[in-house]
Amino acid sequence: MLSKVLESLLSAMDSSTITDCFIWAVVLVFFGALYARYKSKSPRFLEYAPTLMTALGILGTFVGVVIGLLHFDTTNIERSIPVLLGGLKTAFITSIVGMLGALAFNILDTMLSSPRPNGMNVAQPEAVTPDHIHQVLQSQHKLLERIAFGFDGNDEVSLVGQLKLLRTDMGDISKLQRNHHEEFSQKLWAELTHFGDLMAKGATEQIIDALRKVIVDFNNNLTEQFGENFKALDSSVKKLVEWQGAYKDQVEVMSEQYKQSVDSLMETKNSVAGIWEECKEIPLAMAELQNVLKVNQHQIDELSRHLDAFATLRDKATEAVPAIQMKLDEVGEQLKAGALSVSASLEQTGGQLLVNANSMRVALDEGAEGFRNSVTQTQQSFASMAHDVANSSEVLTSSLGETVEEMKSSAIELLTSMQISVSDMGGKLKDHSADLSAMMKTQSDELSGALKSNSSNMLDTLQSSFDKANSGLTEHVNDSLGRFGEAINSQLKAFGEATDREMNRELQILADSLISISKGFINNYDQLIREYQVVMGQLKSMINSNERR
């Protein structure tokens, strides 16, 4: 139990630390002995100090050896040898320091030796007399004689004899210690040499046996486990050589493909350069397109101006309708006047009027039919005008100039037809009025009785017919002109919006096409660069593998 505790304590300590502890212990004993020698104290410690320093040196020797042996491991000889040598270093250093300290103290003690005075208690008399002085002189004389005898005596009791005996004893002790240390050193060296030989021999034999077993086991396992593997490796190497030949052919094919890729890249470069040159012309085309847009805007302005003129014409036509109505009113008044004159002469021409009533009814029917035909022609003129306007609106998207010309011609035709219709209507009314007046004058006597009964109905019928014709003509003209203006404005607005949308769409399509072409070129170029890097990496790896082989 105690041995294990001591072993664990020594195993936990370092050899250099223990060496320092023993050296400091010897140094403290050495200087403590010198201090006691200087103060003339502890004579027993002074006598034991050399032996104590020697004992400390011997103790350090054995402690160092024990530490080296405790840290020695037979399974790990390489790491144990430095620890063993450190323990032996501790042993030799502590023994040398202890012996040097003992020798140095003995030499200094011999060189600094001096008599130690003894204290004497002499009673002092109250009065000193010559007798007292004589006694003191006698006692001093005796003391001096004894001292002289102690120094000069030849026996062993004298101081010189004691010193001789002490020197002889110290010499014998030194010889014995020297012999003892020499014998111990020789025995220790022999034991250590024998131990080192045994340890080296045992370690070498164990290492050789272990290596032999390992090599035998390795050869057996290699033969058992890797025999088939080496055969498979041989076949794999053959297949690898075949694969290398095929890979060489593949590399040649890839080189050709790479050349083709480079050629295609150059063609792509030229194509992109051409596209770039074509793109340079886009600003010029845009400038020309701007001029075209300016021309279109000018044409639109001209068309607006013509529409304003046509609106003025419409207003004038609208203003002319009341004049026509006034003319019709005048005609009605004339007819009323004629009717009054007829009523005045009805009494005279009653009989004749009855005879010619049928002819007058026929004439009135013809006048109404002529007026109805005039109105119908006017409506047809407005319908043809609306049809022409619709056709011109459809043709407007293809050519603005033709539309303007058609609008001018339509306006001229409208005015002409209106003038012709009004002239025809006026002429016919005049003719019918003249014929009616002549017939009424010649036959007034015959129709006097019948005209009285039918005059009021006839006047009411004529007035309602004229009013209906006048109102229908005015409403039709106003509605036709309004629809025509609205159609023209809507067509112009739709044309402007369609032109803007078409221009924006074409410009957006052109920009998207350019962006897609640029992106496609960039993607193709990046893919080509990546393929080129992959091919170069494969070529480098193949070249490196061939160089290593």
What key attributes describe this structure?
549 residues
Structure description:
- Among the domains are: 2-111 and 143-218, no CATH class; 312-505, no CATH class.
- It is built from 10 helices and no strands.
- The chain has helices at residues 2-12, 15-39, 43-70, 77-111, 130-152, 159-344, 350-355, 357-396, 400-443, 448-548.
- The longest helix has 186 residues, at 159-344.
- It starts with a helix and ends with a helix.
- Mean pLDDT is 68; it is low at 115-123.
Overall pLDDT: 68
Which structural category do the helix and sheet elements fall into? mainly alpha
Q: What's the gyration radius in Å?
A: 77 Å
- State the separation between the terminal residues, measured CA to CA: 67 Å
Poorly predicted residue ranges: 115-123
Portion of residues in beta strands equals under 5%
Summary of the model, kept short:
The protein has 549 residues and is mainly alpha-helical. The chain has ten helices and no strands. It starts with a helix and ends with a helix.
Secondary structure blueprint with pairings:
Layout (H helix, E strand, L loop, with lengths): L1 H11 L2 H25 L3 H28 L6 H35 L18 H23 L6 H186 L5 H6 L1 H40 L3 H44 L4 H101 L1
Helix pairs in contact: 2-3, 2-4, 3-4, 6-9, 6-10, 8-9, 8-10
